[in-house]
Amino acid sequence: MAVKLRKLLGLAAGWQNVQHNTLTRRSEKKNFAMKLNSRAQSAQNPHNHSPIVLVHGLFGSLDNLGILARDLIADHDIVQVDMRNHGLSPRSPEMTYPAMAQDLLDTLDAHQIERATFIGHSMGGKAVMALTALAPERISGLVAIDIAPVDYHVRRHDEIFAAIRAVSESAASTRQQAAQVMREHLQEEGVIQFLLKSFVDGDWRFNVPAQFPQARAHVIAGAGHWVHAEKPEAVLRAIRRYLTSIAA
């Protein structure tokens, strides 16, 4: 694990001359960074470890990785963040990984953290990977968790978006009412309850229109995390169908 991590950071450092400058110019041009809502906690015991920044995934909030924080805080300073368009962080039509990476970099500066270990789940993991191109020298370590505890099937994210939008268009003001609406689109009660953590006082704590409004999911059956190595032909077919669709 440590060897792979060092290789990852070394690769990020190798990209620095090209991608760091590119992302910096894009940041200056768009001025898309924002101050994220965050929660900082000091370690319970003396330690010499770098701080840990926990970064949630799509439709999540800073509480989602709390189970990790409760354990790691024994010997690490912990920072949890609400990503842009999530939780109590500001809303913006800009929802790109370079923008999210800049947000994380600014969060380090706001907490006067020189280097940190980042743990990101799903979207959060990808945002942290984008940060390796922007400022690899600020990253002590990186853990990307990209597996959700649900059964995936083709276009399941379409159902999630449909459920969320249905609640937004309804008169639901409580989580119980919202759950009834969502069950018309989703069967997995665990997913419904997870999403409802971000439904407060009749409103979603994420900016639905900004969350990849044209997003579609494609699942390759019988493959694991390294799907491109396990099912290269199927992956290429899916990519080519996508390229054809956007060229039409």
What are its keywords?
248 residues, disordered N terminus, two-stranded antiparallel sheet, 12% strand, 45% helix, 9 helices
Short description:
The chain is an alpha/beta fold. It is built from 9 helices and 7 strands.
Explain how this protein is built.
The structure is a single chain. The chain is of the alpha/beta class and 248 residues long. 45% of the residues lie in helices and 12% in strands. The protein contains 9 helices and 7 strands; from the N terminus they run αββαβαβαβαααββαα. The strands form 2 sheets. It has a 5-stranded mixed sheet with strand order 1-3-2-4-5, sandwiched between helices. A two-stranded antiparallel sheet has the order 6-7. Strand 2, helix 2 and strand 3 form a beta-alpha-beta unit. Helix 3 crosses helix 4 and helix 5 packs across helix 6. It starts with a helix and ends with a helix.
Low-confidence residue ranges: 1-30, 147-154
Percent helix among the residues?
40-55%
The biggest beta sheet is recorded as: 5 strands, mixed
Which word captures the global form? globular
Write the layout of secondary structure elements.
Elements: H1 2-30, E1 38-41, E2 52-55, H2 66-72, E3 78-81, H3 97-110, E4 116-121, H4 123-134, E5 139-145, H5 156-169, H6 175-182, H7 189-196, E6 199-200, E7 203-204, H8 227-230, H9 232-247
Parallel strand pairs: 2-3, 2-4, 4-5
Antiparallel strand pairs: 1-3, 6-7
Helix pairs in contact: 3-4, 5-6
